[in-house]
Amino acid sequence: MLRKVLSPFTWATALFGLLTLPLAAWASEWVLSVNEQNGLPGLTRGGGPAMASSFNFWGDNWSWTGFYPTLKVEGPYHYTLTGQNKDLDFDLKADINKDQAQTLTWNFDLQAHSKQADVMGGGIVWDFDPALIAGEMGDPVLLPDNRGWAWGKNAQGPRVEMRFDPPLAKVYFERGDTRQIRTFFFTDPIRPGRKQIKAVLNVTGDITLGPTPSERFGLADPMQWPDDKLDWRASPVDLSFLNAAEKPAGKRGFVKAAGEQLVFADNTPVRFWGTNLSAYALFKTPDEEIKAQAKRLSALGFNLVRLHHHDSPWVSPNVFGDLTQLKDTQRLDAEALKKIDWWIKCLKDEGIYVWLDMNVSRVLTANDNIYGFDELPKEHDVAGLKGYAYVNVTLQQAMKRFAQQYMSHVNTYTGLAYKDDPAIAAILITNENDITHHFGNALLPDKGVPKHSKLFMDEARAFAARQDLPADKTWRAWEQGPSKLFLNDLEHRVFVDMIKDLRDLGVKVPIATTSTWGGNGLSSLPSLTTGDVIDAHSYGGIGQLEKNPLTSDGMINWLGAAQVLGLPMTVTEWNAEPFPLPDRHSLPLYVAATASHQGWDAIMQYAYSQQAFLSQWRRADNWNAYNDPGLMATMPAAALLYRREDVQLAKTRYVFAPTPDTLFNKQITPNTSVLLRTALEKGRLQIALPQTTQLPWLQAGAIPADAQVLHDPDQSLLDANASESTTDTGELRRNWQQGVYTIDTPLTQAATGWLGGQSLEMGDLKLQLKTAYASVAVQSLDAKPLTQSRSLLISLGTRAVPRPDDMTPFHVEPLEGTLSIKAPAGLKLYSRSSDGQEKTLVSSYKDGRYQITFDGQTMTNWLFLK
C-alpha cells in the first residue's frame, strides 16, 4: 500500500466525498456542497467528482508551503474556517453561509504578518472533470478583471459561477489548460496587512446546494454516545468453525491457480477472505499477543493474512534490522525473521493461510553496489527502487537476492522453508510498482536521472525497431499508444526473469507480479498476465453506495475492471478514506457480496493493523481495523456470506473484448467507461485481452460460448434513467438515488445505507429505523435458511468516532428503531461479551416473527438469536 495515494484521479484528490442530498431531495443528480476537509466547494454528479477545489500557496520557485485549514459546522449551511500558513506567515479565516437557495458566500479575512518577497503566492486551485469539459459542461471561462470564473454552457443547464470582490491578484488557466483554474489571493510580494475578500458562488439549472456529510448524517455530539464494547484481544462472534477443516493451514497441499479459480493441491476450490498485518504489528508485537491475535482473526472469519510493509523505510526495525544501524541490505535480520516465523506458525495453527510480499517499499543503501544509486529517490536516508528496477539490472539482482533469502529461510517453529510451506498461499513480486501508468515518467530524459534515462531510452528504441513502431512515440510514457506496448513488454520481460528465478528456487504457489491500482487503465493489464493471478487494489471515499454507475465510478468498479478472463483475481488491498468515514461499516458487506457475485478469489482488507498489539498504546486510524467498531461491525458478516458463498455467482457473463487499437490507444478506466461500471451492476464482468502483434507473449482470452461479448467501452447496460440496479441472480439490489443496498439470500439478509425514516421489507426481515445511516445483517450460523435456523447472528453497524487525537475507545452511535425477523419459535435474544458471558435481552414473538427494539441509548455490534 502506498500510504500517500488517496484517490485514483489526480485532478480530484482534493475532493472529500461530497454526497447527494437527504431523502427528500435525492432526485438531484448534481450537488454542490462544502468540503469538510478544507471549507471549499466541490461539485458532484451522480456521487462522483465533477469539480474540486483546494488551497495552494507557494514560496520561491514554486516550492510548496503547508496550509491546513479547519472547518467547523456552526449550524445548517453555516460554517467557519480557520487556517495558518507558517511558511508565508499569514492567517486565514472565513465565514461561510448559504444566503439563498442557490447561493453560497465566503467572507475571507486574511492577515499577513510580515513581508514575503520572491514568492509565488497562491489561493484556491479549481480542478474540473475533463470528461464534462469535453461533454455537456464545456470549457470553464474566466470572468473579466480577475473576478473569478464560470462553468456551464448555458444558463438553462447546470452552471456554476464563482465571483470575487474585490478582484483577485491573479486568475488564470494553469498552462492554458481549461481543466485547472488558479485564483490567487496573493502574488509576489506578500505585504503585511489585512485583506478581506467576498466570494459568491451561484449555481443554476439542475444543481442543488447540499449539506456537508456532518449535517447529513446528523449533528449529534459523538461525545454523548456510549463507548464501544469491542475487545481488541477477543471477539464475541466466533466464526472459527469456518477454519476447522483447514487446521493446520496447508493440510490440503499447496494452493494453485486452475483456470479462473484458486484450488488446493487436492483440487478443492478455495475462497480467501483476508486482511493485512503490516509494519510494527509484525515486529513489535509480543509473542503471546501474536498467538491471541491469530485466534481472534480466525474467530472473525479470516482465512488469509498478507504480511506487508516488512521492508519499508518508515518501519524500524524491519526485515533488514534497525535502520539507524543499517549498513547494507545484503542479509536479513534474524530477530525480524523470527517474529515473522511466529506469526506464520500461529496463523497456520488456526487454519489461516499467509500471503507474502517480496518487495513493498524496499530500502537500499549506498553499500548495496547499485548502479546509479545517486539517482534513486531517497527517504529516511535510504533509497527506493520503484520504476527504476525495470531498467536497472543491479536493482533486479537485489530484489532476487532478497526473494531467495526470504523464501529459503527455514521457519524456526515449523521447520519448513517458506517456499516449502503449503500454508503460504501466494506471493507478490513487487507492490504498487508499475511503469505502464505510475513510474514510467520517472525514467524520462527530463527527470534528472541520466543513467536510468539512457537505459530506458535504449530499451524504447530497441523495442520500436523490433516492432516497427515510431521511435519518437514509443518512449512517451505519459501517452496512450506505442508507449503502452513498450512498457507492458518491458514489465513482462523483467517479470518473466523474476518468476523463473522463484520457480527455480522451488516456489510452488501462485505468483502475482504487481497490482493494478491508483488509476491504472486497462492498458496496464497485459503485463500482469505474466503472473498466475491478477491482483488489484482500490480505495474509495464516502458515499460508495450512492455512486450512479451511469455517470460515476466507485471503488468496486476499479476492482471489477481487473478481472481478466481466464485468470483468478485477488484483491490484496481495499479500504476507503479519509478516516473516520461515517459510512465505513457499509463497505465489508458491499465488497463481500460483490466479490461473491463476481467470483473473485481472494479479498484482503487493508489493514487489520499497522501498529503493534500493545495494551498500553492503541491509536485509531484507517490502517487499524482491529480496534475499529465502525469497520469491524460488519466484517464477520461479510466473511460468512463470502466464504459460505451465500451470494450466488452471476448467471450472466459479460466479456469486454477490446481490440488492440482500443486497448492501447484509448485510456479506458472505470472513470471513462460506462460499460465497466454498468456491467458490474448486473452480471459478471471480465476483460478479454486481445492477441497483439507487438506482444507475442500476450495470450488472447478464450471467450466462453455463453458469454455476451461487448466491444464498445461507451455502451451502457442500464437504462438511461435508471436509479437502481438488481443483479441477474436477484439477490443484490442497489438504489444509488436513495443510497440503499440490500442482500437477500436464504442464509444472509442485510440492508445498509440510508435506512432511517422509512420502512424496509426484504425476505424475512422488516426494518423501521430512526437512525439515518446504518447496517443491519441477519445470518444463519447453522447453514439453514433463516426461517428454519435456530442460531442467528445479527450484525449492526453505525457511526463510530474515536476520541480526540484519534485515541480509543471509540464513541458509537446508538441504533434506534425496530427489526422484525421471521424465524422459528423458542429462540432467545442475547448479547455476548468478549469473554463469552451472555446477557439475555428483551424481544417479543408474534405471528412467527421476533420483534427487536433498539432504544437509541445503548449499542452493541452483535446480537444472537439462539
Summary, kept brief:
The protein contains 16 helices and 48 strands. It is α+β, with helices and mostly antiparallel strands and 866 residues long.
How does this structure look, described?
With 866 residues, the protein is of the alpha+beta class. Among the domains are: 208 residues, Beta-galactosidase, Chain A, domain 5 (Distorted Sandwich), CATH 2.70.98; 55 residues, no CATH class; 142 residues, Chondroitinase Ac, Chain A, domain 3 (Sandwich), CATH 2.60.220. Helix content is 18%, strand content 29%. The chain has 16 helices and 48 strands. It has a 9-stranded parallel beta sheet with strand order 25-24-21-20-19-29-28-27-26. The chain has a 9-stranded antiparallel beta sheet with strand order 33-34-35-36-39-40-48-44-45. Strand 26, helix 10 and strand 27 form a beta-alpha-beta unit. The longest helix has 24 residues. The protein is globular and about 75 Å long. The protein starts with 29 loop residues before the first strand and ends with a strand.
